[in-house]
Amino acid sequence: MENRLIKAWMSTPVVTVSPETKLTDARELTAEKQIRVLPVVENDKLVGIITKRGLLRLDLSMLGEDSWQIHSNFEEKKVGDSMTLKPLTILPDSTVPKAARVMLENKITALPIVENGKVTGILTNSDVLRFLITAYGELKKPILVKNCMTDEVVTVERNTSLLEAHRLMGTKRIRSLPVVEGEKLIGLVTRTDLMSSDPSRLESRNNQELSLKILTQDVEKVMTSPVHTIKQDEEVVHAAKMMMENKIHVLPVVDEAGKMVGIITESDLFLMIIQKFF
């Protein structure tokens, strides 16, 4: 494949915010635009970045052991108070496999493309998957899901609380949790499910009681069911296509009997891209 350059795959135009944007507005923007990363721009220069993951961690920092605590002035906090300074960037003439390695090693979901200090585009996980789907035909041998998947999977049961799911995702640095009943897969709960479970919880101290009530509910209330799955003997390109088409970042892997035997994530696919195309 001749064109592996980022400028052929990056997304434009870029949705950005300023340091003065309220965190609540940034949170709504990620949900509205279905994006995970917001470059922070001031005077046409990239000054930071804020992510959906960062907003979730901000949620978690407000949780007490036995109560739901909200800073009284949260609604006044701005992106500049919490953004990541000096974010990683990449040039448009670099390659997608190189970008995939940077994203995987640093556990990030997007890289702003910067020329002369200005953000000209952004390379997201979805853009990298588009590259994989196109470049896959270059490979001499098919690659099966079972050869790329993660075997050890962190799971929860249907009666696990949303609060506990929040904490698990934060401590394990994962974005989704399969919900099981015995050995049977019955659902999937994602970071997005948790963040959207109570859209008002960060707006006012008056919502503390309601927020605590919601967060002590079972994951069964917000999980996705039935779940998109993929069989272990299918080719990885099909996993990439399913993730793209359904706007998901993870697929539980099942055997012929339907038993979950692993999970394949965008990170697993990124590793394969690095190994085969770098």
Describe it for me?
The structure is a single chain. The strands form 4 sheets. This protein has a 3-stranded antiparallel β-sheet with strand order 1-2-3. A 3-stranded mixed β-sheet has the order 6-7-8. It starts with 22 loop residues before the first helix and ends with a helix. Helix content is 34%, strand content 20%. It has helices at residues 23-33, 52-61, 79-82, 96-105, 125-135, 162-172, 191-196, 208-215, 236-246, 266-277, and strands at 37-42, 45-51, 84-85, 110-115, 118-124, 156-157, 176-181, 184-190, 230-231, 250-254, 260-265. It is flat, with a radius of gyration of 20 Å. It folds into 2 domains: 6-138, CBS-domain; 145-265, CBS-domain (Roll). Helix 4 (96-105) packs across helix 10 (266-277). Strand 9, helix 9 and strand 10 form a beta-alpha-beta unit. It has 278 residues and is α+β, with helices and mostly antiparallel strands. The protein is built from 10 helices and 11 strands.
